[in-house]
Amino acid sequence: MANFPSLFRPSAFWSRSENPFRELNRLQREMERVFDEMGSNWREEALVSPRSAGFTPACDVEETDHHYVMSFDLPGIKKEDIRIELSNHTLRVSGERHEEHEEKGRQRTQIERSYGSFSRSFTLPETIKADQIETEYADGVLRIAVPKVESSKAQRIPIGEARPGLFQKLLGHKKEEAGKVKTSEKVA
Predict the structure, then answer these.
(1) How many helices (H) and strands (E) in the chain?
(2) Contacts of 26 (CB under 8 A, 6+ apart)
(3) Given phi > 0 = left and psi -120 to 50 = alpha, else beta, which region is 148?
(4) 3-state SS class at 28
(5) Dihedral of the alpha carbons of 66, 21, 93, 57, in degrees to the nearest 10
(6) Element (H, E) at 38
(7) Residue 123 burial (CB < 10 Å; 0-12/13-18/19+)?
(8) Tens of pLDDT along 139-172?
(9) pLDDT at residue 15 greater than cutoff 60
(10) Distance CA 97, CA 115 (A)
C-alpha cells in the first residue's frame, strides 16, 4: 500500500462495519442493478414493482495460488434454475428466481425482493484448466472454483557455442558472409 497518512487508510480509521467505502460499494451494485433492469425491462411495471424485474446477484471473486474462486449470492433459487456455461474464456452464470404464489386472503403491503432472470458474465484468463472447474451450491450461495494452469519455473540458459553455421542458416546468411563473420570475430 502507498505511504498515505493513516487518515486516508479506511481500515485504520473505521471499523469494517462502519466503513463508508463498503456502503458506497453496496450503493454502486444497487445502481448497476437498477440500470440493468431499466435496460432490459423498460416498462412502467418494472420501474414500479421489483416483482417482474430481473436482478443482479452479488458476486465475490478471490484469487488463491492455484484457483480463482467466485461466490454468488442466490437465495431462494433452486439448483435446477441455475445455468453455468463456459465459451471462449467467458464464464456465464444465469438463472431465474420465481415469484412465490400468493395465498388467497393474504395481501402484501410491501415487496422488496426481486424476481425474474439474471445473467452475469466474466472473462477468464487463458491460463485456466477449463475441464477441471468445480462448483457447489449450498445455503443460497453458488461457488465456482476455476483452477489455474501451473506456471512453469524460469530456466536459466547458459551462453554457449552453437553448432557451426546454425545461425547463418537460420538468418539466411550466405557462406561468404558466414566466413567474413568468423574472420572479424578472430580479429576482435
Answers:
(1) 5, 7
(2) none
(3) beta
(4) helix
(5) 140
(6) helix 20-40
(7) exposed
(8) 999 999 999 998 756 778 888 877 887 777 888 8
(9) no
(10) 5
Sheet with strand 67-73: strands edge to edge: 59-63, 67-73, 141-147, 134-138
Asked whether the whole model's pTM tops 0.90, one would answer no
Residue 21 is placed in which grid cell?
A: 467505502
Amino acid at 123: T
CB 64 within 8 A of CB 76: no
All three cell numbers of 101, joined, read: 404464489
Cell of 162: 552453437
Confidence of residue 38 (pLDDT cuts 50, 70, 90): low
Give the separation between CA 68 and CA 62, rounded to whole angstroms: 6
